[in-house]
Amino acid sequence: MSTSAVPSGQSAKSKLKLTPVERRASVTLALLFASRMLGLFLLTPIFAVAAVSIPGGNDAAKVGLALGAYGLTQAFLQIPLGMASDRYGRRPVIVFGMVLFIVGGVICAMAQNIDWIILGRVIQGLGAISAAITAWVADATRPEVRTRAMAMVGGSIGISFAASLVLSPMLVGEFGLSGLFWAISLLGFVCLLIAAFVVPAVPRTKLPIVQARASDVLRHVDLLRLNFGVFCLHFILMALFIVAPGLLATLGGYDSANLWEVYLPVIVLSFVLMVPAVFYTETRRAHKVALEIAVAGLVAVLALMPLASHSFFATVATLVGFFIAFNILEALQPSLVSRVAPPEYKGLALGFYNTAQSLGIFLGGATGGLLASSGRSSAVFLLSSALAFVWFLTARGFRSPS
C-alpha cells in the first residue's frame, strides 16, 4: 500500500479522489513520460525524408536500423533497469537512463553520417526507464485510483505523438536534422530535471529482501497475458501509422506539413471520450470487462478500416475509435500489471511488460513497412485485426485482481 493512502475513516467517495501527493506524483510523472515520449516520436514522422541530407541517408536499410535500434536496445534493458529500480530506487535509475538518452542524442546531433546516428540511437535506447516510471506511479498511488494515474501517463503517449507531428516538420525545416536531435537532447535534459528535482519522494513499504527472478514473472500466467497484450497494442499502433499518413494524404489532400490538423483533433477527442470509461472501470472495479470490451472494439475497428479506407471521413471516424480503445488499454494494462505483480518484483514485472512493448514497436514498424511497400495496405489492417482477435481470446482468461 502506498504511503499516500487516505485515512480509513474517510468515505468511499473521498477514497476515489487523488490525494495531494498522488496528484503531484501522477502529474509530474506524466509530464516526465510525455517529454521523453515526445523526444522519441519527434524523429518518426520526418527522419526517412530528412536523412537523405547526410551521407548514407539514402540507404533504406540503415535508415530503418537507425529508427529500430532504439526499440531493440530498449527491449534488452527494460528488465535489468526494472530490477535495478526495485533494488536501488526509481529516481536514481531514471536519472541514469536520461543521462544515456542525452548522450545518445548529442552523438546523433553531431553525427556526420548515418552510422554515427545508428550508434547514437543505440545509446539512447540503453536508457530504458519506462518500467521504472510506471513502477513509480504504482508506488505513489493506491489501487483504487491507480488506473486514473496510469491514464495520465498512458494518455501522454497519444498526446506526444500528436505533438510530434506538429513540431517535427517545423524543427527540421528551421534547424535541419541536427537541430531536431539537439531538440530531442534538450527534452531529455528537461526529463532529467523533472526526475531529479520535481517528482515527489514516495517512501516505499519496507519489504523482506527477496531476490526476484525472471522465472517468477514467466510463470505468472496473467502477467504473460498482459505482456502479450501490450506487444499487440504497440505492434498494431506502429503498423497502422505506416499506412495511415499516406491514406489520409490521398483521401483528404493533406501532406506531411499539415497532417497534424487531422491527428490532433482525433487524439484529443478520443482521449476525452475514454475518461468516462476509465472512471467507470475504477468505481465498478470492472477491469476485466473493460479489458475485454476495449480489445473487442479494437478488433472491430481494425476490421472496418479496409472498407473505411475509401472515404476520408470514415477513415477519420475509425481512427477516433481506434484511439479510444488504445487510450483505455494504454491506461488499463500497466495498472493491471502493478495490481497482479507481487510487490517485491513489481519493477521486474514492469520491465518485462515494457520489453514486450518495445518489441511490438520494432516488429510492428518492420512488418507494416514490409506490407505497405508491396502495396498491400489493407493487409496491414486485416493482420492487425487478426492479432487483436488472438489477444481478445487470451484476455478472456485473465483473472481480474480484487
- The outline comes out as globular
- H/E topology pattern: HHHHHHHHHHHHHHH
By CATH, the architecture is named: Up-down Bundle
CATH superfamily: MFS general substrate transporter like domains
- Catalogue the unreliable spans: 1-9
> Which structural class matches the secondary elements?
mainly alpha
The number of distinct β-strands equals 0
Oligomer: single chain
Number of helices: 15
Helix content: over 70%
Strand content: under 5%
CATH structural class? Mainly Alpha
Q: Tell me the major beta sheet.
A: none
* Radius of gyration from the alpha-carbon trace, in angstroms: 20 Å
In whole angstroms, how far apart are the ends? 14 Å
**Mean pLDDT over all positions:** 81
Number of domains: 1
* Fold-level CATH name: Growth Hormone, Chain: A
Describe this structure in words.
With 402 residues, the chain is mostly helical. It has one domain (17-202, 212-395): MFS general substrate transporter like domains (Growth Hormone, Chain: A, Up-down Bundle), CATH 1.20.1250.20. 79% of the residues lie in helices and 0% in strands. It contains 15 helices and no strands. It has helices at 12-15, 20-41, 47-50, 60-88, 90-109, 114-126, 130-140, 143-198, 214-218, 221-252, 260-284, 287-308, 312-340, 346-373, 377-395. The longest helix has 56 residues, at 143-198.
